[in-house]
TrEMBL record:
PANTHER family: EXPERA DOMAIN-CONTAINING PROTEIN, PROTEIN CBG16535-RELATED. It comes from Caenorhabditis auriculariae. It comes from the Eukaryota. Keywords: Membrane, Transmembrane, Transmembrane helix. This is Uncharacterized protein. The chain crosses the membrane at residues 26-43, 115-135, 141-160, 172-196.
Length: 211
């Protein structure tokens, strides 16, 4: 499967700019990256509740005044790689999660995704069987990538409008971070699914054929 011009994903291996990488260690590496993002997002909730008694007191409008370090911790929606992009293109003063339900669904998601990714990492690294140990990770990661796609499509007109105007360094950086997070998670989704199909095909063979 050719994902991009320089990225090809097969069941056993992936090729990144011509470099052949086995899917198993690649999936572990990508899962560790996304687990770090998910845990960091959960810690935002813990910090918000500890300091303010609120599940997610996010204020993304921090570039109009001098903000303290504590304000910066809660100013970015790490789970969707939003480091000021939505504020810049939509003019919002809070994170997207605050407009949905105040951040409660985001809080639950960080716990579920972190748990599923941890189980996937353990399965990938140490437990080739049973295959169902990868199901939570596949479900959560697929849902997550689709969610990022929906968010991107919903905000695409405003993003394109912003990119069609004057692009300064700040906009270039926050847009690049968002695109990187979007692409790396779709790549992780495809790598994980292809490796799962490979393991499923191997373990479905008769015992003699597996030798």
């Amino acid at each position: 499967m050719r994902l991009l011009a320089c990225v090809t994903i097969d069941e056993q291996h992936s090729r990144l700019c011509g470099i052949r990488i086995p899917n198993r260690p690649l999936a572990i590496l990508l899962a560790l990256f996304q687990l770090t993002v998910s845990v960091a997002s959960f810690l935002q909730h813990a910090f918000s509740y500890y300091k303010h008694g609120h599940v997610f007191l996010c204020n993304s409008n921090i570039f109009l005044h001098n903000a303290t370090f504590e304000v910066h911790i809660l100013a970015h929606d790490v789970i969707i790689f939003d480091f000021g992009l939505m504020h810049r293109v939509l003019g919002t003063d809070a994170c997207v999660a605050n407009y949905l339900d105040g951040g409660y669904m985001r809080f639950a998601w960080t716990i579920e995704q972190s748990s599923a990714l941890t189980l996937s990492i353990v399965s990938l690294a140490f437990l080739p069987k049973p295959l169902w140990l990868l199901w939570p990770g596949l479900l959560m990661q697929s849902s997550y990538s689709l969610g990022l796609s929906v968010l991107t499509m919903a905000t695409a007109p405003k993003i394109l409008e912003a990119l069609g105007g004057r692009i300064d360094m700040h906009l270039a950086v926050i847009f690049s971070i968002y695109v990187f997070g979007f692409c790396i998670n779709w790549m992780f989704t495809f790598v994980l699914w292809h490796y799962y199909w490979y393991r499923e095909r191997i373990f479905s063979r008769p015992p003699a054929a597996q030798l």
